Amino acid sequence: MNRTNQWAEVKLRRTTPVLTGAGALILVYLFSPFFILQFISLFLLFIIIGSRMYSEYLLRNLYLIRREGDLRNFRYEWAVVELMVENRGRLPAFMLAASDSPGRFSVFRNNKRLCTLRGRSRLVISWQGHCSNRGIFSVGPASVRGSDPLGLFPFFAAAPETTRLVVYPPPGHISLTHPGGIPQGTRIISNPLYEDVTRRRSLREYQAGDEMRRINWKATARMSALLVNEYEAAISYPLVIFLNLDPYEYGLRQRELYFERSIEAAASLCLMASREGQELGIMLYNPHEGEGFTFIKPGSFTLLPILERLAGLERASKPKNDGAEQRPLRGSARLMLDRGKFLPYGTRLVYTGPDFSDEEYIALNSLKRHHLSLEYLIIDERHLGAAVPGNSRRYQMQEGGYEIV
Questions:
Q1: pLDDT for 152-187, tens place per residue?
Q2: pLDDT recorded at residue 110
Q3: How far is it, in rounded angstroms, from Cα 381 to Cα 396?
Q4: Average model confidence (pLDDT) for the chain?
Q5: What pLDDT band is residue 291 in, cutting at 50, 70 and 90?
C-alpha cells in the first residue's frame, strides 16, 4: 500500500495462507457448478477484502503524537515521556500495541502499551527513563502494531517524530561566600547614571528636560498631574566561570571522573548564581575540540543556554601525548589571563578544573588590577590549602557526592 504522510515506515503483512486461500476461493467461485459453494467462496472473499480495507483504513487514521518537543532533566533523575495514540477514524482499533524506543536510556520502564481505541478517541501513554548519563539524546521513534478484527492483515507503522532529551549535569550543593565582601548580583549605589529600569523606586512630578519614556501614564491619569518614574541606581557584578576542559592538564589517574566532576561543579555554580540573581557567563576551554574556546557573555538569561552547552560537551578524550604542556604558563592559564582583562568591572571570575602551579597563580593575580575578583575551584588528588599566591581563595572539590566542596 502507499505510505501515509504521518508515518515514516509502514509494513502491511500479506500472509501467504490468506493469499493462497483467496486464490483458491476465486477458482471455486469461477469454476464450481454448485451455487452454495460459489456463495460461500464469494462471502469469504468479501471478508478477506474487507479485512484488508479495514487495516488500510486504520493506518490512514491512526496517529502517534508526542506531547513535548524537548525534554530537559538533570542527570540521575527519571525523565517522563508522554506519547498520545489517536484514532481519528470512525472504526475501532482492536488490540493495538504501541511502543516507544528508549534511545540510549540504560534503564526504562512502561514504554509499551496494549490498548483498544474506539472511533474518534485517544489515549496517552506515559513512561519513564533513567537519565544515567549527561548528554543530548533522542527518544524514539514510536511505533504501533495492530490488525483488522480477524487478524488477517497485521500491520506495523513507525512515526517520524522524535523527542530531544537534554540531560544536564547533576546539581550539586555549593555556596561560595565572596572573600572581598562584594555582594552577589547588583548593588544599590547613589550615582543616578547607573539607573536600573527594572527597579522602580518612586514617582515625582514632571520637570523640564525629563524624557518622555519616563512618564507613568497610568499614574498621570489617576492624579491629573504629569508624573515620571524614578529608578534605583545599581551596579552589576556578574559571575563568569572558566571551565578547563583540556585533557592534557588532567592527570592520568581517574581522568574521566575528574573531567565530569569539573563539569558538575560548573553547573552547580550556574545554579548558585541563578538563585542569587547574579548575571552569569562562562568560558569553555578545550583546544582539542572545535574552535578550542567558547565564551558566553554574562547576562540575565544565560542559565539554560549554558546548562545545555554543558550537557552537550564531549567525554574526556585520551590525548595523544599524556601530560601537561611544559611551559611557564599552560594554555588554560594563558587564555584566562588574556580574556580576563576584557571582563566587565567587578566580575567574579571562578576557575574550575585541575590545579595551577605557583607561577601561574602569580601571573593570574595580575587580573586584579582590572577590578576582578579571583577564586579557584580545584579538582586534585592532593590536599590543597585555602590560599594561593596573590591571596585569592582556593577550594578543593570532592571527588563525588552531592556536596561539591
A1: 889 999 998 889 999 999 988 888 876 555 555 555
A2: 85
A3: 9
A4: 83
A5: confident
pLDDT digits (tens, 9 = 90+) for 299-310: 878 999 999 999
Angle subtended by helix axes 303-311 and 255-275, to nearest 10:
170
| Number of neighbouring beta carbons within 10 Å of residue 30 | 9
Q: How far apart are CA 310 and CA 313, in angstroms?
A: 5
Say yes or no to pLDDT of 120 above 60: yes
CA distance 377 to 358: 15
> Is pLDDT above 50 for 80?
yes
Q: Are 311 and 135 in contact (CB under 8 A)?
A: yes
